[in-house]
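Hi V.,

You were right to ask for the full record rather than a summary. Here it is.
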Amino acid sequence: MSNFDRYAFSANPSFDEAETREAFSHAVPLKTLVIYCYDPRAAEIPQAVAELFGDEVFPGQVILDASGNRVASSTTMFPIVVAGGRAIDALRSITVAQHLFGIQNVVVVHHSHCGATTFTADGIIDAYKHEHHTDISVLYERGSICIEDYEVSLKRDTALIRSHAGTPKDVNIFGYFYNIDTGMLSEVVKDKAEAGHPV
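Predicted structure:
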């Protein structure tokens, strides 16, 4: 057993994956994932989404057991913080959150004056060739590398999430533009769950 195995559920000799998953699903009443940029100026986005939705709890409280161990949380919203808030970087997190907790909503937020608008796909690809002697042109779809048009990027990202096999069909997907100076969220995409798949 390594030094850290005692902290891994799956390393426990009595590990039961189905039971562990069931316990996790009750540990956090997760409903919504919010994908947004790691720019510090965008840090209020999850709270803005919680206020807009009205029935979300964020950041919530950590729940302790009798021994003082952190065993759960009252939050209903998880933030996924990635460069530019682009969905391409969040797909695995969506799949894992659904598997462990179940989700009802995925919200993608792109913000004003984002660093992802300061470069182009060709620009970053060329820079990597010259500065790092590496070809990154095949690593990412060009439309997911930067933001050239906020409406286009939000529509692309929400469509990417909807079409991804790791996204359950019964989730609602939203795309918002966030003004970092006013704190206002503007809805760009509202993709409700498929008929026959109510949330």
